[in-house]
Amino acid sequence: MKKSLQIIKYLVLTAVSMIMIFPLFWMILGSMKTSKEAMNPEMIFPDIIHLENVIEVVTDSPLPKYIGNSLFVAIIATLIQVVTGAMLAYAFSFMEFRGRNILFGIVMATYMLPSCATYIPAFVILAKMNALDTRTGLIISQCVSIFGIFLLRTAFLQFPKELIEAASLDGASDWKILWKIVMPVTRSSFITFGLMSFISLYNNYMWPSLITKKSDLYQVAQGLRSFFVEDGAYGTDWAKVMAGSSVIIIPLLILFAFTQKWFISGLSGDSGVKG
How many angstroms separate the Cα of 139 from the Cα of each of 149, 202, 206, 249, 263? Predict the structure, then answer.
């Protein structure tokens, strides 16, 4: 009976996995078809593999530049988010001050706001700073993550406070305690936060589209739409659009391949802290 349930579980998980991965599978196959074949839903595999679609996208389009823009902004903003998130999570977890819980509640309440509700005030602030249409504006407007504060605080609360007190008595500063003692133990949560933050920033479309109009600053999502669809560079050549989309996801796949162990550990709540 137990073996039968195990088999059923694996079959269900396999079926769900296939459903989830099919769009990616279809996109990659579509990148190796002609435009006519890509629009034929009855044709799963191409008659002839057309690698020239990918080659043309990489060599004859500005897509690599857009990927570089997204990587630069996403990496810098992610690093800043990790630092600011860790500092705030540390303060809310280990530092005693009046109104700490109320302040944390206010911070978390802002997470309930739709992101579009913050676009206008953030746009006005960047305009007054003359930071519109700049990489600086893209980065500083995304330098704090409420989700990251919540995730890291959850991991920090599992950390023994006795170790914090002992390190403090030995003369260690809060900065040193955070990065030399707490961070190595809760590393999986940091990696999970960093990976999720990077993916979100890399794929972001709406906010960069609002504050950047120069094509030199386009991120991958807006660049892909502008060059392959809106500007009519390839018109409705969906084979090349799929080729471009396939190229775009390569950095994410590489990143996840190297961090999946810590990512899964962080999502499962195993921060490495033992009671």
Answer: 18, 12, 15, 21, 24
